[in-house]
Amino acid sequence: MKEIGKDEYLIRALSGRNSILDAVLKRIAIFTEDETLMVEFEMRASIDYRRVILKFVDVSEYSFYHNDKYLFYNVEHLKFLRMANGLYYISLDPYDEAKAPSNEDQDLVVAKGVSGYEREKS
């Protein structure tokens, strides 16, 4: 895997043209070791990365919900930011487009750090 970046740099690197907005969530992996959670996306064709893996460390909260009545899983809305308390926050189903977490946000991760990687072509 090739590293894209960490923390605030990663948020900037995965914005604009390279946003994970409109990506397809392919895999969620949760490890008990180091409170690590990994999320893998298949990106849309017009950006620099084909597959992106986000690795969240020191996870303090996560929540994902799936119902077979819905497709698994197109990222149609997104919040990806550093909160005022220094933690990193991503919601793949935000309640609103405010640049702050909401209690109504869903499909989220809160962690002390986040790293991004591009999966090598296989």
Give average pLDDT, whole number. 87
Give the termini distance in whole angstroms. 11 Å
> Which runs of at least 5 residues are low in confidence (pLDDT < 50)?
none
Secondary-structure element series: EHEEEEEE
- The quaternary state of the protein chains shown equals single chain
What is the overall number of helices?
Answer: 1
Query: Cα-atom Rg, whole angstroms?
Result: 13 Å
Shape: globular
Number of strands: 7
Helix content: under 10%
> What portion of the residues fall into strands of 2 or more residues?
over 45%
Q: Structural class, please?
A: mainly beta
Tell me the count of domains.
1
Report on this structure.
The chain has one helix spanning 7-13; strands at 2-6, 24-31, 36-42, 51-63, 79-82, 88-93, 106-118. By secondary structure, the chain is mostly beta strands. It has one domain (2-118). Strands 1, 2, 3, 4, 5, 6 and 7 form a seven-stranded antiparallel beta sheet that branches. The longest helix is centred in the N-terminal third of the chain and has 7 residues, at 7-13.
What is the structure about, briefly put?
By secondary structure, the protein is mainly beta. It has one helix at residues 7-13; strands spanning 2-6, 24-31, 36-42, 51-63, 79-82, 88-93, 106-118.
Mind sketching the topology for me?
Elements: E1 2-6, H1 7-13, E2 24-31, E3 36-42, E4 51-63, E5 79-82, E6 88-93, E7 106-118
Antiparallel strand pairs: 1-7, 2-3, 3-4, 4-7, 5-6, 6-7
Structural features:
seven-stranded antiparallel sheet, mainly beta, 46% strand, 122 residues
